[in-house]
Amino acid sequence: MNINRFKPGNFSRPHFHPNDRYIMVLKGTWWVGTDTKFDQNATVPMPAGTFVTHFGKQVHFDGAKDEEVEVLTMGEGPATSTPAEQK
Fold first, then answer.
1. What is the pLDDT at residue 71?
2. Largest CA distance in the chain
3. What is the strand order of the sheet 69-75 is part of?
4. Is residue 41 a contact partner of residue 12, using CB atoms and an 8 Å limit?
5. In a 10 Å sphere around its CB, with 0-12 CB exposed, 13-18 middle and 19+ buried, how is residue 38 labelled?
């Protein structure tokens, strides 16, 4: 288990993980996109209380727009992240 904190304006770039990850939004609105090209405007809001599954090997990016966000992440190891951004 890990608590990730995102400051306003902080986003990951497209990436994937080898295994499923289960995420609960604890604070704020977490924004998630599912493309190999980063586009903050194409993200979907996940408000506090939302439960999200990131399936293994599925590309995504995520972060915070206007407020601080905290998410609780759980899943099978290893917790590696592989970049997948399309240039």
1. 98
2. 34
3. 2-6, 69-75, 21-27, 51-54
4. no
5. middle
Percent of the chain, pLDDT > 90?
Answer: 83
Among candidates 41, 33, 30, which has minimal Cα distance to 3? 30
- pLDDT at site 87: 61
Residue 8 has pLDDT above 90, yes or no: yes
| Amino acid making up residue 10 | N
**Mean pLDDT score, 22-36:** 97
- With contact defined as beta carbons under 8 Å apart, do 30 and 68 qualify? no
- Give the span between the Cα atoms of 53 and 25, in whole angstroms: 11
Please tell me the predicted confidence (pLDDT) of residue 84: 86
Distances (CA, A) of 19 to 13, 41, 54: 18, 27, 9
Predicted TM-score of the model (pTM):
0.89
Structure tokens, 64: 């915070």
